[in-house]
Amino acid sequence: MLTLFDREAMARVAGTAHLPGHGSAAQDVVMFVSRVADVDAGYRFCLRQGGLGVAPPVDRPEWGAGLRTAHLRDPEGNLLELQAY
Predict the structure, then answer these.
(1) What Pfam family is a match, any one (predicted)?
(2) C-alpha pair distances (Å), 23 with each of 4, 26, 31
(3) Distance of CA 14 to the CA centre of its chain
(4) 6 to each of 1, 10, 31, 75, how far by Cα in Å?
(5) What gap in Å lies between CA 60 and CA 63, rounded to an integer?
(6) CB-based contacts of 78: which residues, under 8 Å, 6+ apart?
(7) CATH number for domain 7-84, candidates 3.90.226.10, 3.40.50.150, 3.30.70.1150, 3.30.720.110
(8) How do residues 59-78 score in pLDDT, each as one tens digit?
(9) What is the pTM (predicted TM-score) of this model?
(10) CB 72, CB 58: distance < 8 Å
Protein backbone atom coordinates (compact mmCIF):
# COMPACT_ATOMS: atom_id res chain seq x y z
CA MET A 1 0.00 0.00 0.00
CA LEU A 2 1.24 3.52 -0.76
CA THR A 3 0.25 6.30 1.61
CA LEU A 4 0.87 9.99 1.08
CA PHE A 5 1.47 11.81 4.33
CA ASP A 6 1.77 15.55 4.78
CA ARG A 7 5.40 16.45 5.50
CA GLU A 8 4.40 18.98 8.16
CA ALA A 9 2.38 16.34 10.02
CA MET A 10 5.25 13.84 9.66
CA ALA A 11 7.68 16.44 11.06
CA ARG A 12 5.41 17.03 14.08
CA VAL A 13 5.30 13.28 14.84
CA ALA A 14 9.05 12.86 14.34
CA GLY A 15 9.95 15.98 16.31
CA THR A 16 11.76 17.52 13.35
CA ALA A 17 9.51 20.51 12.64
CA HIS A 18 12.36 22.83 13.68
CA LEU A 19 14.60 21.50 10.87
CA PRO A 20 14.64 22.96 7.36
CA GLY A 21 12.64 21.23 4.63
CA HIS A 22 15.74 20.50 2.51
CA GLY A 23 19.45 19.95 3.03
CA SER A 24 21.69 17.63 4.97
CA ALA A 25 20.02 18.13 8.38
CA ALA A 26 16.48 18.33 7.03
CA GLN A 27 13.07 16.93 7.77
CA ASP A 28 12.32 13.38 6.65
CA VAL A 29 10.99 12.96 3.12
CA VAL A 30 9.90 9.33 3.48
CA MET A 31 8.67 7.08 6.23
CA PHE A 32 8.32 3.30 6.15
CA VAL A 33 4.93 2.29 7.56
CA SER A 34 4.36 -1.25 8.73
CA ARG A 35 1.04 -2.62 9.90
CA VAL A 36 1.57 -4.92 12.89
CA ALA A 37 -0.68 -7.01 15.10
CA ASP A 38 0.48 -5.31 18.33
CA VAL A 39 2.06 -1.85 18.19
CA ASP A 40 3.33 -1.99 21.78
CA ALA A 41 5.05 -5.36 21.31
CA GLY A 42 6.46 -4.27 17.94
CA TYR A 43 7.82 -1.05 19.45
CA ARG A 44 9.55 -2.93 22.28
CA PHE A 45 10.99 -5.44 19.79
CA CYS A 46 12.39 -2.68 17.57
CA LEU A 47 13.98 -0.92 20.55
CA ARG A 48 15.69 -4.18 21.57
CA GLN A 49 17.04 -4.50 18.02
CA GLY A 50 18.71 -1.07 18.12
CA GLY A 51 15.85 1.19 17.06
CA LEU A 52 15.62 4.68 18.55
CA GLY A 53 12.22 5.69 19.92
CA VAL A 54 10.71 8.83 18.40
CA ALA A 55 7.09 8.65 19.61
CA PRO A 56 5.89 5.85 21.91
CA PRO A 57 2.73 3.88 21.18
CA VAL A 58 -0.38 6.04 21.27
CA ASP A 59 -3.98 5.87 20.06
CA ARG A 60 -4.63 8.29 17.20
CA PRO A 61 -8.41 8.61 16.74
CA GLU A 62 -7.86 11.81 14.72
CA TRP A 63 -6.08 9.71 12.05
CA GLY A 64 -8.71 6.98 11.85
CA ALA A 65 -11.04 4.99 14.07
CA GLY A 66 -9.13 2.53 16.22
CA LEU A 67 -5.66 3.49 14.93
CA ARG A 68 -2.65 3.04 17.24
CA THR A 69 0.85 4.05 16.14
CA ALA A 70 4.44 4.27 17.32
CA HIS A 71 7.38 5.92 15.58
CA LEU A 72 11.05 4.93 15.63
CA ARG A 73 14.27 5.35 13.73
CA ASP A 74 16.17 2.30 12.56
CA PRO A 75 19.93 2.12 13.30
CA GLU A 76 20.61 4.05 10.06
CA GLY A 77 18.22 6.88 10.98
CA ASN A 78 15.27 6.01 8.73
CA LEU A 79 11.87 6.97 10.12
CA LEU A 80 9.49 4.06 10.77
CA GLU A 81 5.85 3.91 11.79
CA LEU A 82 4.23 0.86 13.34
CA GLN A 83 0.45 0.89 13.12
CA ALA A 84 -2.53 -1.28 14.01
CA TYR A 85 -6.27 -0.77 13.75
Answers:
(1) Glyoxalase
(2) 21, 5, 17
(3) 7
(4) 16, 6, 11, 24
(5) 6
(6) 30, 32
(7) 3.30.720.110
(8) 999 887 899 999 999 998 88
(9) 0.82
(10) no
